[in-house]
Design a protein that fits this description.
single chain, alpha/beta, 2,3-Dihydroxybiphenyl 1,2-Dioxygenase, domain 1, 4-stranded mixed β-sheet, 3 helices
Length: 152
């Protein structure tokens, strides 16, 4: 009976270790990591840019995104937390949907956005966080937010 319990515990520990390694791998961008597709979850984000080169240059400088060109008018991006693409040759139309990125250091993120050519359009504070909105050099509006610990 003791040997069965030991074997079960050892299996449990090995399974937990495997889950931990798999979880760590999913947090590190890599060509070897397979992204699981989940039913009814956001899978891909696209936005427009009249000047595809300018958009790629901005997002690489401001956030470190990487790009794969798929012809003269489309580039996919990685390193943004969700896969996506930029449709070149189209005028951005900003409306009711806002893509919001997360930053550990909001001030540093804002500085990189401005240095890369973005324009900060709004700043907000709310319970538990704060954020800023920006317009990229090709006209798209995004937000960046961070957690703020409650003051006692």
């Amino acid at each position: 009976m003791k040997s069965t319990a030991i074997i079960l515990m050892a299996g449990f520990v090995i399974a937990l270790a495997g889950c931990s390694v798999q979880h760590e791998a999913s947090l590190k961008p890599s060509e070897d990591v397979i992204v699981a597709r989940t039913n009814n979850h956001i899978d891909y984000v696209e936005f427009a840019a009249e000047d595809l080169s300018a958009a790629k240059e901005f997002y690489a400088a401001a956030f470190g995104w990487e790009f794969q060109d798929w012809g003269p008018d489309y580039a996919s991006f990685s390193g943004a937390g969700v896969e996506g693409g930029i449709r070149g040759g189209e005028t951005p139309a900003n409306g009711s949907m806002l893509v919001i990125l997360y930053a550990d250091d909001l001030e540093a993120s804002e500085a990189r956005v401005v240095q890369a050519g973005g324009e900060v359009t709004e700043r907000h504070e709310f319970p538990g966080g704060k954020r800023f909105h920006f317009r990229d050099p090709v006209g798209n509006v995004f937000g960046v937010w961070t957690l703020v610990e409650p003051q006692d």
